[in-house]
Amino acid sequence: MVANPIKxxxxxxxxxxxxxxxxxxxxxxxxxxxxxxxxxxxxxxMAVYQALAQDSTHPTADAIHARLRxxxxxxxxxxxxxxxxxxxxxxxxxxxxxxEGAGRxxxxxxxxxxxxxxxxxxxxxxxxxxxxxxxxxxxxxRGFVAEDFDVRIVGTCRQCRxxxxxxxxxxxxxxx
Length: 176
Hints:
It contains 5 helices and 5 strands, in the order ααααβββββα. By secondary structure, the chain is an alpha+beta fold. The protein has a single domain, classed as Orthogonal Bundle (Arc Repressor Mutant, subunit A).
């Protein structure tokens, strides 16, 4: 377990596991957590969260906006970015580091890691049999205080390994 002052809620079951009832459960849990914290549950916040929970590819804010724009024409890309950043600050979603420049997001905030393909940029959740345990220092170098840590395992996915060499040269960012 990580020594971490940030207490993150752990909605269950995982949004990617099981039928759409799992997504509905996550969304109800999200609403409950927001209300407990005095956070307004707006239609836009709910739509962004639901789109994120339904997408196990760890989408970017732009991908979420593209998914929602036909149903919510008034939703701007800037609003999606602000909502995701706010939810991340509140510990309700997770921003995931990648091999790319664009930030990607994850509705699954419980303890898990990510496998990231350096060729195509795909990212999948990974829950090791033994949890990663690191004791974060209380005071770091030059007054830096560690609050959290994020582990990503970078390599090449099965699809990219089996692709012909010339097809592999596309580099990260070609999300499948």
